[in-house]
């Protein structure tokens, strides 16, 4: 199944309105070892480590790296024993771009607009009151896994250093 045409997207916008408050959040880069991504994204390109954590329910670990202008990269690796990235690493053994994330102010309106435009969002989750998400499959999004989320702004605060984080996860 290919992506819906521009007419369907325009019709959905006409019916549902413009303002879903959509903006770019981050691009996620996955590799078998998160540590292997640090030399490029932090050391060479000067990214600032904002924090990281494990999603034990799904089976991956992340580190969020920020750049000026609000751009962010999420570095990802599988947790030991997880097959979360199984198909991804079959196609990309060394890793690569896993998904892009768009943050919206109005998640339900975004869902309605995507449906009206002919897309089929999947993985819709409202388990966490501050994190709502859904995805568009690469087959309908021109080869890109698109995550559409609504979450509160990332806040600055006391956090560990990248060196401490890496030491803790190894």
Number of helices: 5
Question: What is the helix/strand order?
Answer: HEHEEEHEHEEEH
Query: Measured on Cα atoms, how large is the radius of gyration?
Result: 17 Å
Strand content: 25-35%
Distance between the termini: 42 Å
CATH topology value: 2,3-Dihydroxybiphenyl 1,2-Dioxygenase, domain 1
CATH class assignment: Alpha Beta
Number of strands: 8
Low-confidence runs of at least 5 consecutive residues: none
- What number of domains? 1
Helix content: 10-25%
How does this structure look, described?
The chain has a single domain (6-169), classed as 2,3-Dihydroxybiphenyl 1,2-Dioxygenase, domain 1 (Roll). It is an alpha+beta fold and 170 residues long. The model has no long low-confidence stretch (mean pLDDT 87). The chain contains five helices and eight strands. It has an eight-stranded mixed sheet with strand order 2-3-4-1-5-8-7-6.
């Amino acid at each position: 199944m290919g992506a819906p045409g521009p007419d369907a997207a325009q019709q959905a916008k006409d019916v549902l309105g413009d303002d879903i408050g959509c903006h770019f959040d981050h691009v996620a880069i996955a590799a078998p070892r998160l540590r292997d991504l640090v030399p490029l994204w932090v050391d060479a390109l000067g990214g600032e480590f904002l924090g990281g954590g494990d999603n034990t329910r799904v089976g991956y670990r992340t580190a969020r790296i920020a750049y000026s202008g609000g751009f962010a990269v999420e570095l990802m690796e599988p947790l030991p024993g997880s097959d979360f990235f199984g198909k991804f690493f079959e196609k990309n053994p060394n890793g690569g771009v896993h998904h892009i994330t768009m943050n919206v102010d109005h998640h339900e309106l975004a869902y309605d607009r995507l449906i009206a435009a002919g897309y089929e969002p999947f993985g819709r989750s409202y388990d966490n009151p501050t994190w709502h998400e859904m995805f568009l499959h690469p087959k309908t999004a021109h080869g890109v896994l698109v995550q559409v989320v609504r979450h509160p702004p990332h806040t600055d605060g006391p956090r560990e250093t990248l060196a401490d984080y890496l030491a803790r996860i190894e």
